[in-house]
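In this supplementary section we document a worked example of the pipeline. Step one takes a protein sequence of length 68 as its only input; no multiple sequence alignment statistics are reported here. Step two produces a three-dimensional model, which step three serialises into structure tokens for compact storage. The input and output of this example are shown verbatim.
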Amino acid sequence: MDTPDPDTLRHKLIELRSEHRDLDTAITRLTTDPWPDQLRLTRMKKRKLLLKDAIARIESRLIPDLDA
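The serialised model returned by step three reads:
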């Protein structure tokens, strides 16, 4: 499997962070609703966690190994 170059990873990181921020805003807005759609809220929170994990994986790949 080809490893993406650092510029590609940085671009993907920007996209993921933006989506994560947008979801955070949408979740906050949804929770202020008197009767929030709990299923939608749960799905959004799950997606946000998946994004957080993906962001962490990419950040880890961008940090050079100390052993190298």
